[in-house]
Amino acid sequence: MFDSLSEKLDKALHVLKGHGQITEINVAETTKEVRRALLDADVNFKIAKEFTNRVKEKALGQNVLKTLQPGQLMVKIVKDELTELMGGDASGINLSGSPSVILMSGLQGSGKTTFSGKLANYLKKKKSKNPLLVACDVYRPAAIDQLHVVGDQIGVPVFSDRENQDPVSLAKAGVAHAKANGHNVVIIDTAGRLAVDEQMMTEIANIRDAVSPQETLFVVDSMTGQDAVNTAKAFNDVLDFDGVILTKLDGDTRGGAAISIKSVVNKPIKFIGTGEKMEAIDVFYPARMADRILG
Ligand code: GDP
């Protein structure tokens, strides 16, 4: 993951990581290289520029050139800024409701159904919750089947009603079913389209208004680069969601979208998906990710 970005940043910081002499010129050159590496990794132009400006300012402010190990300090500055750019601290998930309702949004194929299962499994195993999955995709019967397969795999019940074609009433019925059956978490998997469209946005906004979720999460395929950022913006404009789930970070992704999304929508990345298996879920730790990127 993030291999090409890591490699490039590594190259950019190479001079500084060694104990060679550091001059103002190679600090400037290094920040330029860092910026190029970010741009190559699909990081939004404006964000990359602001990022490197901040790094340069900090480096000058902390008098990097006068310290004993300027290279290491420079690497630390880049790492800290990268961590900040991705959200600073890890942000938790709000489970204060009874039951806590978690609404999934995102395009078709982004990994919503898979992630719904992963999250249910995680909350069951790590947080001792008793989740219920709710199938709200009324357009694709296969999507309902898929959620049932996932539910069977992890031993979590799935609420569905193939006769009901109204996703809003389905979602409400799912929450009512959870209440009646002692489930303290409800995860609602919704329909996704291949592209952002008005009907889809209206539908998910209506579901949200009907069930008042503690968490509305936006699921996005990290392999889709800048498109991921645009989709995130479109969903956030309508839903004002609470957090982002980045899926497919196990793939050959350049990872820049991960860095840009947080800055563009100003919402935390909460979890990442790192594979197709139900266990392939991780809490997103910005500092850990920055470490990984910088190697
Ligand atoms: P949905 O249409 O948004 O519900 O997407 P799905 O959950 O059906 O996922 C679409 C495809 O992506 C499926 O083949 C999943 O197995 C795959 N997938 C989902 N999450 C991940 C992930 O984190 N890594 C990888 N490699 N594949 C994933």
Q: What does this entry look like structurally?
A:
Belongs to the GTP-binding SRP family. SRP54 subfamily. Its EC number is 3.6.5.4. Helix content is 53%, strand content 14%. Strand 2 (131-136), helix 6 (141-154) and strand 3 (158-159) form a beta-alpha-beta unit. An 8-stranded mixed sheet has the order 3-2-4-1-5-6-7-8, with helices on both faces. The chain has 295 residues and is an alpha/beta fold. The protein is built from 11 helices and 8 strands. It is elongated. Helix 1 runs antiparallel to helix 2 (24-40), helix 1 runs antiparallel to helix 4 and helix 4 crosses helix 11 (286-294).
Helix/strand layout:
Elements: H1 3-17, H2 24-40, H3 45-61, H4 70-85, E1 100-105, H5 112-127, E2 131-136, H6 141-154, E3 158-159, H7 167-180, E4 185-190, H8 198-211, E5 215-221, H9 225-239, E6 243-247, H10 256-265, E7 269-273, E8 281-283, H11 286-294
Parallel strand pairs: 1-4, 1-5, 2-3, 2-4, 5-6, 6-7
Antiparallel strand pairs: 7-8
Helix pairs in contact: 1-2, 1-4, 2-3, 3-4, 4-11, 5-6, 7-8, 9-10
Guanosine-5'-diphosphate is lined by residues 106, 108-114, 192, 247-248, 250-251, 273-276, 280.
Which consecutive residue ranges, at least 5 long each, have pLDDT under 50? none
Shape: elongated
- Cofactors, ions, other ligands: guanosine-5'-diphosphate
What integer is the average pLDDT?
A: 87
**Rg, nearest Å:** 21 Å
Structural class: alpha/beta
Catalytic activity: GTP + H2O = GDP + phosphate + H(+)
Subunit structure: Part of the signal recognition particle protein translocation system, which is composed of SRP and FtsY.
Subcellular location: Cytoplasm
Enzyme class: hydrolase
